[in-house]
Write a structure and sequence with these properties.
The chain has 163 residues and is mainly beta. The protein has three domains: 32 residues, no CATH class; 41 residues, no CATH class; 47 residues. It contains one helix and twelve strands; from the N terminus they run ββαββββββββββ. Strands 6-7-8-9 form a four-stranded mixed sheet, with no helix packed on it. A three-stranded mixed sheet has the order 3-5-4, with no helix packed on it. The protein starts with 7 loop residues before the first strand and ends in an 8-residue tail after the last strand.
Length: 163
């Protein structure tokens, strides 16, 4: 059996929309070589690649993009990872508050650890949390600023330096 020259496509420049041509090995390799990078794919937007960029899916554009930061969607909690993995995520606390959290192994069990501000309940009823406390050892006080706008100052009784 012989193949007629007119059905052999040697450059893939004018690809037929019908099943009536065959590409040569060279034409196929040239095509694959020119489109086998991430930036050549049609579902990516790769610009200004820098050290420590990573690949992340952007649901708004339905494309994979390079970023120098991580975006997190809030979720209640992911499934537990295996005991030799960690899983970092944005946890939805309530309609007004999120927390950066990680699930990892502690004392042989997978537990959730919140990495963000400490929880607290203010006299005004707010449960929005607090910034990290400020320890002023020179004056023997601790200051806690809450996200509701209130601040508290507490004495640190029996304060003594041990080293």
């Amino acid at each position: 059996m012989f193949i007629k020259d007119e059905i052999i496509d040697t450059d893939l420049a004018n690809v037929s929309s019908l099943d009536d041509t065959l590409p040569t090995a060279k034409a196929t390799k040239t095509y694959v070589d020119s489109t086998n990078t991430i930036s050549a794919a049609t579902d990516t937007t790769i610009t200004s690649v820098q050290d420590n960029n990573h690949f992340q899916y952007d649901g708004a554009s339905s494309k994979w993009v390079n970023r120098s930061f991580l975006d997190f969607d809030k979720i209640a909690a992911p499934a537990d990872p295996t005991t030799e993995e960690g899983r970092l995520y944005l946890k939805e606390i309530n309609a007004n508050n999120n927390a950066l959290a990680v699930k990892l192994q502690k004392a042989g069990s997978v537990v959730e650890v919140e990495l963000t501000s400490p929880g607290c309940v203010c006299e005004c009823g707010s449960t929005d949390g607090a910034k990290d406390p400020i320890y002023n050892f020179a004056e023997g006080i601790m200051i806690v600023e809450l996200y509701c706008g209130h601040s508290y100052e507490m004495s640190i009784p029996n304060l003594r330096r041990i080293k």
